[in-house]
Amino acid sequence: MTLGTISAKITDYANRADPYPLYAELRRTPVRREDDGTYLVSTYYEVRNLANDPRLSNDTGNRGLGYAHIGQPPEETGLPPSFIFTDPPVHDRLRDTVNRPFGPPHSPGFLDSLRGDLAKVVTELLDAFEGKDQVDIVEDFSYPLPVTAICKVLGVPREDEARFHGWADALASALDPHSGGDDGQEKGRRARQELGAYLAELIETKRRHPGPGMLSALAPDMTAADLEATAVLLLVAGHETTVNAITNTTLTLLRHPDILRRFQNEPGLAVPLVEEVLRYEPPVQFVPWTTALADIDIAGTTIPQGSPVWLMLAAANRDPQRFKDPDRFDPDRQDNEHLGFYTGIHYCFGAPLARMELHVAVEELFRRVRFSGLLEDPPPYRANAVLRGPRHLPVAIEGLRA
Question: Could you give the CA distance from residue 234 to residue 68 in angstroms, rounded to a whole number?
Answer without folding.
Answer: 24
